[in-house]
Structure formats: structure tokens, C-alpha cells
Design a protein that fits this description.
This protein has helices spanning 5-9, 47-58, 154-164, 189-195, 235-239, 247-255, 264-270, 285-293, 298-309, and strands at 15-18, 34-40, 61-68, 81-88, 100-102, 117-119, 201-202, 226-228, 259-261. The strands form 2 sheets. A 6-stranded mixed beta sheet has the order 1-2-4-3-5-6, with helices on both faces. By secondary structure, the chain is an alpha/beta fold. It contains 9 helices and 9 strands. 25% of the residues lie in helices and 13% in strands. The protein is elongated and about 65 Å long.
């Protein structure tokens, strides 16, 4: 049973977690002590964000904005999100950088927060932060604009190879299931044929994966990485001259990679859900992926709450 807006306004909160669009917190009769807000990258350039900042400043909050991804905590999944933390107090936050968006978690003792910032005035032009583009481990081709055997440039491949070389980030294999029937997660031949050049393919030893969205499992393009389980097969050998083959030959080649979707449990692991987390049996596979795609990374939010409450 729900409550009315009037009843909600009479409640008292120490902290409010927000993901706009939502009801403005200023409707409350008593302001919360803390606010944590999350949204997609791009929110920092919106008129809604400007109105939010104006409102919390008028209410007496000290605040800081961030653009953060789980990779900064050693988790091999890019999920860049806008965050704002605010505290009802007169003194600035120790790491506060007015008018700037921090790109890393702050170190409270740091006296140079601008080292990790981007200028909010230039945020619209900022386009190169963890792009969700396809890639694999091949380094064929040369030159900045060389087009390789997939829809990637040498520059993109180099950036992704750097991610795989970052030893501060765990390997994907640390988040994978090993006691589940994976046949149900294999990509069907029709999908392999249609999206072969767009797939973001990773292996268990990779230290990266792109953001999983609510369309994962139902759609392929731009919804998340797929896992190559045949680790002894060289992907460049599969894709070499692939477009020159017949459709039947292409499917035969692509099936050798044994590409599959990440399971809902594996995505939950990457998002920081506890090991005992699970879905009720009545929740369909599509619903599970949808819920996870709309979720937050638990570790990122937990660290921000800890920073806010210290």
C-alpha cells in the first residue's frame, strides 16, 4: 500500500537517494542531511542539472559532482555515470571543487582536487570518456585511422588493449559462473551473422567489458559485451576475410568462438551484488536483464555514501 504525497512530505530523512526524473526533495517539510543523486553521463550538461544545483545551493547544501565508473574500483566493467553528493552544512566539503566534475573518487587529504576534474563549462565537448564501442584484442592494421577487420580503428584497439593491461583491474573470470548450463546463453547463428562486425567480444582473461543495458539478451548492438568461451581460438583468424565468405561459411566460422551472453548472475556480480543475491524463479530472463540494466553498481554507490558520511 502506497502513501500520498502529503504523507511523504511529512517524513523526515537523514539521506535521500535520487535518480531523476523524480519528485523534488524541496517538497519535504524538513530537508535531509545528505543527498546522493545518480544519472547517466550527459546529465551534467542538462538544464535539469542546472536547476538542481540552483535549488540545493539555495537550500544551504555543499555538494560535489562526479563522473565515475566501476573500473576505478578495479571492476572490469565500464558503467560511466553522473553522481552528485550533497551535505546540509555551511563548510565546504574537504575535496570540493566548485564548478567542476571529479573524474575519480576523492582522497580526503588531497589539496589539489582540480587534478581529477573536468571543467563543467566544457562538458558538452567532452566526448571521449569510456566510449561504449566494439573492440577485440587484435592489433591488425596501422595508423590512426586504419580500419581493421572489425568496425574499429587502430586507435580504438590501442585504448582497449591498454585496459586489458591495467593490472589494477580484475579479470572477468573472477566474476563468471562455473556451475551453470551455458548452452542457453549461446548466441544463435542468426544473430552471429547479422551482428558479427558489431559484437563487443571479450574473453575471461580480459579486464574490461562495456556497459550492460536493459536491452541485453534481447538486443545485441550497444547493449553489452559477449563472452568468447573458446579461448583457444584466435579471433583474428575467424574474422579474417569473413565478409568474403558465404553466409553458411560465416556462421561456421563464428560458431567456433562459442560466443555467449553473460548470465544475469554474472552481471549482478559485476554490479557488486552479494553472492547470495538471486531472482525469484517467476522472474523471466528478459526481466532479469532489464532490471540489472537499470541498476547501479553497488560498490560505487557504497563508496560515495561512505565519503559523504565521513
Amino acid at each position: 500500500m502506497g502513501i500520498t504525497l502529503e504523507e511523504f512530505d511529512r517524513l523526515s530523512f537523514d539521506m535521500i537517494l535520487m535518480s531523476p526524473p523524480c519528485q523534488p526533495f524541496t517538497r519535504l517539510q524538513k530537508l535531509p542531511k545528505y543527498i546522493l543523486l545518480e544519472n547517466v553521463k550527459g546529465f551534467e550538461a542538462s538544464s535539469t542539472r542546472d536547476l538542481l544545483i540552483q535549488t540545493i545551493e539555495n537550500c544551504g547544501f555543499q555538494y560535489q559532482e562526479f563522473l565515475l565508473s566501476p573500473t576505478s574500483l578495479g571492476i572490469p566493467n565500464s558503467r560511466l555515470r553522473y553522481f552528485l553528493i550533497a551535505k546540509l552544512q555551511s563548510e565546504p566539503l574537504p575535496f570540493q571543487a566548485p564548478g567542476q566534475v571529479l573524474m575519480q573518487f576523492p582522497k580526503i587529504e588531497s589539496v589539489h582536487p582540480q587534478k581529477y576534474t573536468m571543467d563543467v563549462e566544457n562538458k558538452i565537448q567532452e566526448k571521449n570518456i569510456e566510449p561504449n564501442i566494439s573492440f577485440d584484442s587484435s592489433t591488425q592494421g596501422s595508423g590512426k585511422d586504419a580500419i581493421l577487420f572489425k568496425l574499429e580503428t587502430a586507435e580504438e584497439i590501442h585504448r582497449k588493449n591498454q585496459q586489458d593491461s591495467d593490472l589494477s583491474v580484475k579479470m572477468l573470470k573472477d566474476f563468471l559462473e562455473d556451475d551453470t548450463d551455458m548452452d542457453q546463453y549461446l548466441l544463435p547463428p542468426k544473430s552471429l551473422l547479422r551482428y558479427a562486425l558489431l559484437l563487443d567480444i571479450v574473453q575471461p582473461t580480459c579486464r574490461r567489458s562495456v556497459c550492460f543495458t536493459k536491452g541485453y539478451g534481447s538486443y545485441i548492438e550497444g547493449t553489452g559485451s559477449v563472452l568468447q568461451t573458446a579461448e583457444d581460438v584466435q579471433i583474428e583468424n575467424i574474422y579474417k576475410s569473413l565478409t568474403k565468405l558465404s553466409q553458411e561459411e560465416q556462421i561456421t566460422k563464428l560458431l567456433m568462438l562459442k560466443l555467449r551472453y553473460f548470465t544475469p548472475k554474472e552481471i549482478a556480480n559485476l554490479l557488486g551484488f552479494p553472492p547470495e543475491f538471486g531472482f525469484p524463479e517467476k522472474i523471466t530472463m528478459k526481466q532479469r536483464y532489464r532490471l540489472l540494466g537499470n541498476s547501479l553498481n553497488v560498490h560505487v554507490v557504497a563508496k560515495l555514501i561512505k565519503i559523504l558520511c565521513e
